[in-house]
Amino acid sequence: MDIVLIGGLWLNGSVWEGVASTLESLGHRPVPLTLPGQGDGAATATLDDQVAAVLAAVDAAPGRPMVVGHSAACALAWLAADRRPGRLAKVALIGGIPTPDGRPYADFFEVRDGVMPFPGWEPFQGPDAPDLDEAARHELAAAAIPVPEAVARGVVRLSDERRYDVPVVVVCPEFTPAQAREWIDAGDVPELARAKHVDFADIDSGHWPMITKPAELARILAAAAEGN
User: Fold this and answer.
1) Which of 3, 60, 78, 101 lies 20 to 30 A from 188 at CA?
2) Helix, strand or coil for residue 36?
3) How many Å apart are CA 181 and CA 199, to the nearest integer?
4) Is the pTM of this model over 0.90?
5) Would you call 199 helix, strand, or coil by DSSP?
6) Which is it for the CA torsion 81, 194, 104, 152, positive or negative?
7) Where does the UniProt annotation place the signal sequence (predicted)?
8) Is the pLDDT of residue 228 over 70?
9) How many helices (H) and strands (E) does the chain have?
10) What is the C-alpha to C-alpha distance for residues 53 and 118, in angstroms, rounded to an integer?
């Protein structure tokens, strides 16, 4: 199966190298994306440009792919379900949740000179990054790509309720499946509260398991893909 891999803020397709190699060994075809504005030099890219890149990967798949979103890019994976509900086998959400309709995509940190740069490690103290040593933190921060303002502050638009028919697996790194279920049951994740098929997978990592536990994450994704 084609497995489309979408990294979160500040990341390009290279962050999936370890995951991709294991997925290939398990018989899948990984498709790591470098999004417009996050590695291709397009500083004026918009959220619509990123959505178009994801849809192009979905449309290019020979069968029904699984789309994987990490962190903020869980919203992009869910937008793919909204735009192509009949084309997707499944959506996997790693360390994030879908952004509801009408909300900004990722207006989380300060925007300077038209971009949202990596804010440093202070906002990620606690369960997000205990498995990243100093060398890994330095490498990730040094490679971080400032996200264009028109991406971060772009408004998510969802319109096709058939997205709720697309099976979802929530991969839980810095939080547990029990916590994710509580958030959904409490109404804090309205999109997943309405989804008809939601499973959970636990991985003992921080917010970036594709860096710290790529083989384990790949096996989780492969199992999700093969469960269709």
Assistant:
1) 3
2) coil
3) 10
4) yes
5) strand
6) negative
7) none
8) no
9) 9, 8
10) 22
Mean pLDDT of 129-142: 95
- Report the distance separating Cα 23 and Cα 50, nearest Å: 24
Tokens of 222: 């492969």
- The count of residues in the chain is 228
Burial 102-122 (b: 16+ CB within 10 A, else e): eeebbeebeeeeebbbbeeee
CA torsion through residues 162, 78, 151, 45, sign: negative
Average pLDDT, the chain: 96
CA separation for the pair 49, 109 (Å, rounded): 21
- Rounded distance between C-alpha atoms, residue 28 and residue 1, angstroms: 5
Note whether 68 and 94 are within 8 A (CB). yes
Q: Given a cut of 90, is residue 9 above it in pLDDT?
A: yes
Map tokens 């440093």 to a residue.
120
Which stretches of the chain are DSSP H helices?
Answer: 17-25, 47-60, 74-83, 134-143, 149-152, 177-185, 190-194, 209-212, 214-226
List the end-to-end C-alpha distance of the chain, in Å, as a whole number. Answer: 10
34-79: pLDDT as tens digits: 999 998 877 899 999 999 999 999 999 999 999 999 999 999 999 9
